[in-house]
Amino acid sequence: MILILRALAALIGLLLLIVVAAAGLAAAIFSLQAGDGTLSLSQLASLLSLHGVRDSVSGWLTGLEADGPVAVVAALSGAGAVLLGLGLLIGALVPRRERLLIIERSAQGVLSAKRRAAASALGDLVQQPRVVLAAKVRVLPRRRAIGGRARVKLVHAQTAEASRVLAAARGASEPLAEQLSLRLRTRRRAPRRAPRVS
Amino acid sequence: MPERVQRPASGRVLLARLAERAIAAQDAVGATAGRDGRWVTADGDRLIDGVVVVAAGRRLDVELHVVAEWPPEPLQQLAARLRGELELSASYCGLSDQLGDVDVAIDDVCERGDTGVVR
Amino acid sequence: MADGSSITKDGAALASSSIAVTHRDSEPLSSAKGQTTITDGVVTKVAGLAAREVPGVYELGGGTARTIGSVTQKVGLGDARTQGVSVEVGQREAAVDLTVVIEYGESIPQVAEAVRNQVIKRVEGITGLSVTEVNITVNDLYFPGDHDEQPPAPPRVA
């Protein structure tokens, strides 16, 4: 549920950003086209044809004032809008709980690590051998169980032998991966552009 | 300008002074008046930090607020010793029949070098 | 408790969140009655200081906590010793949650075990509470050569 609310909050946030950007663009266009005129809300409104928008919206709102089933729809829509607003607020404000990598669990407590910290540390280690040019590590902890997987994608020098690269990267990162109860899965590739030296 | 009249100290203030001395006698313990400075007893021109004495009829209940230096001894032991010191001093000064409860609050633990307790 | 006193949760008088011990029996050093109150903040600080005593622990807290902590400390609201430490205190027990930064090269499980043992020893020895669990989250690994946010402040009192 929280995920849906978060997604909705992100979507509405994006739409509002677009609206603000559009308003800014309108103000910029106005500034260019206004000539000697000063920026005023009424001139901005006429530039954006807001009077026409107002007339059509007011017609719609007048229709909603009618008795009978339309009033019910209006009331339900209003209530729905309030609930949606509250839901969006919750979605935006509830703090995200980062999924932790559980290393050990005992009667005396739990030892865990933050995913990002584990990934960052493994990434630093994997990049230590000279043949490794860049690396990206993603840690995937098991839900509620100990350990998890670490996906390592590394870029190595063109001239380096693939098996050597993998061995070097594993050698550098395996001690830490073992401590963190992680299984390493390593993929490698050479850089995309053509080598400049042979 | 008339001279300021020195009034004899009340049992409350005497007990506060004894409590102050009991705290000062402990190693690695200091008094604290609290963030807003409310744990004090007025003694003439000065304030006795970390001691609050409340008179309830003839009885005087004492609150001590202290800060211990790291690593402290077991805090229950520290509190018991403070009570003992105060009780002994009160009996020497003839205040033991007035002495009521002695509550000890350990409000903080400080490392040497922090503002607070350093002896 | 073994010394004949009991622990009650004291929500009023001396502190907003604390444990209080009411001594009913005479003790060897005193026959006065009274409560001993230990605030939750003291328990937190004891746990934090105990964790810092363990070799291999570089810092407590981490990331956003340390950034916010350094800001609150500058305006006199925060305390570095309780950063990264959270305790839940009951009548006779406490549970501790710690967020730590461990030095790279140290065995994480071994350092964590040492932290656990030290925290239990200090909290139980100093406050008299029984520690039910110590949960440790490794927030980061410190590599030598990492840039620190700020150097440790020199002591203000000699």
Q: Which structural class matches the secondary elements of chain A?
A: alpha+beta
Mean pLDDT of chain C: 76
Kindly estimate the percentage of residues of chain A that lie in beta strands according to DSSP.
15-25%
Q: What characterizes the major β-sheet of chain A? A: 3 strands, mixed
| Stretches with pLDDT under 50, minimum 5 residues of chain A | none
Task: Return the average pLDDT of chain A rounded to an integer.
Answer: 83
**Of all protein chain pairs, which has the greatest interface, and how many residues does each chain bring to it?**
B-C, 33 and 34 residues
User: What is the straight-line distance between the termini of chain A?
Assistant: 56 Å
Description:
The complex is a heterotrimer of chains A (198), B (119) and C (158). Helices cover 55% and strands 20% of the residues of chain A. Chain A is α+β, with helices and mostly antiparallel strands and 198 residues long. Chain A folds into 2 domains: 2-93, no CATH class; 101-189, GMP Synthetase, Chain A, domain 3. In chain A, helix 6 links the parallel strand 4 and strand 5. The longest helix of chain A is centred in the first third of the chain and has 32 residues, at 2-33. Chain B has one domain: GMP Synthetase, Chain A, domain 3 (2-Layer Sandwich), CATH 3.30.300. Helices cover 28% and strands 32% of the residues of chain C. In chain C, helix 1 packs antiparallel against helix 3 (108-127). Chain C is elongated and about 55 Å long. Chains in contact: A-C, B-C. Chains B and C meet through strand 5, helix 2 and strand 6 of B and strand 2, strand 3, helix 1 and helix 3 of C. Strand 2 (109-114) of chain A pairs parallel with strand 7 of chain C.
